[in-house]
Amino acid sequence: RHLNYCPIPLTNGSIINVEGFEGRNVSFQCKHKIASKSNKYFCKDPCKGEGDILVTVEPGRRAESGRITLVDSGDGSFTVTFSHLQLSDSQKYWCAVDRPGFDTFTEVQLRTGFDTYAEIHLTFCTILPTHTAYVSVLLLLPLLPHNSYEKYLFDFREINKNVLQLKFYYK
């Protein structure tokens, strides 16, 4: 196979952002126009030579190399599956189509995080007609691949004198 590399990659301008957890599997789809009869391949950045290609698949077929599987749907798109994600898998990759002239590419950014939970202890109090009540809440939240807690929002509201409502949001 010959890699038709252009110094300025011919991309469709889109970026596929993928997040997954260590030890789990993650799949995503790469779509290309006018590529149903072309071989496709998946490579690590910078995808400049044969050594960067991780897996190549023929139209309508399935191909596997190590923990990466490609399944060509026959319509110009193909599905990439990483099995047993590792933290070291977090990097830039490229979905590509083997074309006469120059190949075309779609950028893929893969982020892998720990498959663990964060414990968050919340304590709040309310003054009831006869006494002050303290309530503790323990929340177990999955850590996001980029370990950001900023995506979790909490809202406490007093419904009536005896009931507090806790709302949990993921933004």
UniProtKB/TrEMBL annotation:
Sequence ranges assigned to domain Immunoglobulin V-set in this UniProt record: 18-110
Keyword rRNA-binding: no
GO molecular function: transmembrane signaling receptor activity
Subcellular compartments: Membrane
Superkingdom per UniProt: Eukaryota
Primary localisation category: membrane
InterPro entries, alphabetized: CD300_family_receptors, Ig-like_dom_sf, Ig-like_fold, Ig_V-set
Protein name: Immunoglobulin V-set domain-containing protein
CC annotations in GO: plasma membrane
Keywords attached to this entry: Membrane, Transmembrane
Keyword Protein transport recorded: no
